[in-house]
Amino acid sequence: MTEVLHNADFLLSGAARRHAGYALLRGHGAVTPITLRSGETGYMVVGFTAARQALTDPRLRGRTATLGNRRGMSEDLRRAMNSHMLNAGADDHARLRRLVAPAFTRRRMAAMRPRVQAIADGLLDAVAAAGTAGTAGAGTADLLAAYALPLPVRVLIELFGIPEEDSDDFHRWTDALTTDALPIDRLDATAAEMLGYIRGLLDRKRREPRPDLLSALVAAHDGGDRLSADELTSMVFLLLTAGHETTVNLIGNGLLALLAHSDRLRAVRDDPELLPAAVEEALRYESPVQIALRHCVEPMELAGMPIPEGGTVLVSLLGANRDPDRFPDPDLLDLARADNPQLGFGYGVHHCIGAPLARLEGQVAIGAVLARFPELRLAEPPDGLEWRPSVIMHGLTALPVVLGPEAAPHRPAGAARPVGFAEKAGPRP
Predict the structure, then answer these.
(1) 197: how many CB neighbours lie within 10 A of its CB?
(2) pLDDT of residue 217
(3) Spatial separation of the C-alpha atoms in residues 148 and 13, rounded to whole Å
């Protein structure tokens, strides 16, 4: 019988304790049994090689639907939320992924860059105007609430064709569905509320199609058997929730990593060409997603650890990204890290389809705020910041900063026209 050495409590703590917990687990092996909050035994994957295997092994399947069943949610809600590509078999996964892949090509991302830049500039205008009066023009702000959070929301609103007046509800729903702090009944009520909204919005797209991603998905559903009704709503749940919360964390965690390392901050500020490398290293250093859940469908071994059928496997992207067997000096924020196959976006067929958009938003958001506020600094020590109590996500609750004076001259935010899903942003791939 496998001895269980640890419990999962540290997963809900702050970044420092999480990293310390994963380091402790790595001392016992790449895969370690742990006690879950339910009292059951789970299997934590903290080794890089083992994590990549777990993310691609067909015997380990998406866990979302299983969690839904255990909550006892209604069959309608379970199917409408969980019939997405993360839980699909190989053929269905490929079919569903093909439907949305055209929205996230590099060519389309390049066409979106001016609009993302304009959104970032507009948000920074508001940050500068609302900054609390400080010393010698040095205002303060919470860059998470005022910047990192609304930027991906506004980008997704335009990409999906969601009415802007619904953005506050949209964030409230996605925030609740990705936290572990709410009682089960409130989580289910929130999911049901969001499902009702999504179904109503899809009906509107059916009556009044627009050049956006939701209208394209509705057309795929109405055009035949390419997308079922449950697959349609589940796709929206997945893309909106994953595309929103993960990018908020990428921007917030990336800014924190630089602000906590003044020499790296200066390097990026002095040479914006370092921004892509800075985003990649931030994805490794403080991954926006902490855990990818998997369900074992037949007995197997992973890195020498026997895992029974029905076992819960927690693949720690955060832990694997600091595996010293794969990354030299893993606790060092190294912008010159040439070999950086980080798992921040997952791996294999389930690699995040929105990764090109998240990278674009991260580079633009971080670059814009550093250029706008050359003396930007943290308002309190990094170890005093709070992290969201989530097993799945890895992100801050707030990022308080001292803005300092603005760079001059400042170019006003542009009014670039949004590039819709069906519009021509250059030749379609």
Answers:
(1) 16
(2) 83
(3) 21
Separation CA 218–CA 211 (nearest Å):
12
**Contact status, residue 288 vs residue 394, Cβ threshold 8 Å:** yes
Residue found under tokens 């899809």 = 202
Average pLDDT over residues 383-406: 94
Question: Residue 150 in contact with residue 241, Cβ under 8 Å?
Answer: no
Choose among 338, 345, 335: nearest CA to 283. Answer: 345
Q: Which token pair is 370? A: 């550093």
Long-range contacts for 89-95 (Cβ within 8 Å, ≥24 apart)? 90/58, 90/349, 93/349, 93/350, 94/349, 95/226
Query: What CA–CA distance (Å, rounded) separates 18 from 230?
Result: 36
Residue 141 confidence (pLDDT) above 80: yes
Question: Which pLDDT does position 415 carry in this prediction?
Answer: 40
Contact criterion met (CB below 8 Å) for 218 and 206? yes
Residue 332 CB neighbour total at 10 angstroms: 12
> How far apart (Å, rounded) are the C-alpha atoms in residues 133 and 130?
9
208 CB contacts (<8 Å, ≥6 apart)? none
CA distance 88 to 194: 22
DSSP category for residue 328: S
Q: For residue 420, count other CB atoms closer than 10 A to its CB.
A: 17
Residue whose token pair is 């920074």: 124
Say how far apart CA 331 and CA 326 lie, in whole Å: 12
From CA 220, how far away is CA 214, in angstroms rounded?
A: 10
Token pair 């990409």 is at which residue? 159
Q: How far is CA 15 from the centre of its chain?
A: 16
The token pair that represents 240 in the structure block = 């909106």
Give dist(CA 417, CA 114) in Å, integer: 9
* Gyration radius (Cα) of the chain, Å: 21
Q: What 3-state class would DSSP assign to 258? A: helix
Residue with tokens 């390097």: 267
CATH topology (fold) of 6-402: Cytochrome p450 (1.10.630)
- pTM summary value: 0.87
Q: What's the CA angle centered on 13, arms 332 and 170, to 5 degrees?
A: 100
- What are the residue ranges of helices labelled H in 142-183? 143, 150-160, 167-177
Residue 296: which of 307, 285, 306 has the closest Cα? 307
The arithmetic mean of pLDDT across residues 53-64, rounded, is: 86
For residue 292 the two structure tokens come to 């990818």
- Per domain, the residue ranges of the chain are 6-402
Q: From CA 208, how far away is CA 202, in angstroms rounded?
A: 10
Residue 363 backbone dihedrals phi, psi, to 5 degrees? -65, -45
